[in-house]
Write a structure and sequence with these properties.
Radius of gyration: 20 Å
Largest sheet: 7 strands, mixed
CATH superfamily of the largest domain: Dehydroquinate synthase-like - alpha domain
Number of helices: 13
CATH architecture of the largest domain: Up-down Bundle
Shape: globular
Structural class: alpha/beta
Distance between the termini: 50 Å
Helix content: 40-55%
Strand content: 15-25%
Length: 354
Amino acid sequence: MLERTVRVNASKSYDVIISKGILDRAGEHIKAVKKGLSSAVIVSDDNVFPLYGERLKRTLNDNCISSLEFVVPHGEKSKDIAVFAELLEFLATNKVNKGSVLIALGGGVVGDLTGFAAASYLRGIEFIQIPTTLLAAVDSSVGGKTAVNLKAGKNLAGAFWQPSLVLCDPETFETLSFEELANGISESVKYGVICDRDFFDDIEKNGFESDIEKKIELCVSIKRDIVEADEFDKGKRKLLNLGHTFGHAIEKCSDFTISHGAAVAIGMVAAARASEKLGLAEEKCSDRITALLTSLKLPTSCPYSVESLFDAALSDKKVEDKSISLILIRKIGDSIIYDVPLKELKNIFEKAFS
């Protein structure tokens, strides 16, 4: 079976391995990166674990790795400080030690929750990502950002903590709803807009379904290059936030009923419009981005008022010393970091959503 491997060299070096059927070979891959491993804790949700939990436990057992499982309700509500505390208590009650590993089996919520617990428990324990959504595969499982949400906003408590291994099995995407697939497609389009015009052109011409493993490999490689240049989000890594300031505000206004990928799609169009109205764009790209997202059945218009969105954006974790870094677009394949004083942010939201 073909295995595509992307090596990430950050504060910890690790492989992202993409291959159909790799879930059933997970035990041998995990054993290879943590020799002598005898126990693991699988963190998953109540949608994913019934589908894939026993398969993962079987391959772990075949490689002499015993396992416990901690299963949370599916959805954004589990990316919560209370659930995070429950997970830490579970680990402590079961006397999990640094000789074990945590395994995130699921989408971005499970990956973020598991990663933050791994960063915090015993001041740091190894963890492994097994993303089962396209969104997690192309984005959140790679790069080491982990977090949970607070009442005030999204991802406000977290840590940088790199996984020891990422195993991506595209066969797990076959059980996803269209909405879940669309989340990952949206983030993939984002990579084309920020720095790879050829990739954007390819999706525009051929759609997203063909050769999905290659597309995942390309997205992961783009993110790898950015993370290696700026692991801790002080400069270039901010480019990965294209559409996210607008998108996170949309998610919060919807009480997270609008999915992350849908919100980012709307946010990308908003960023393109703002770029054009601010005179930063070298080409008019909002219509082209809108057309591609529409063809991929992603939303491009926002149901909330500028006032509501602006209020939500004020609690964004990217706010620093009365300013915020927006990612705007010069042209497709060339995005820029644009620092905005908070006093000017509402004006930009008005340009973006009018």
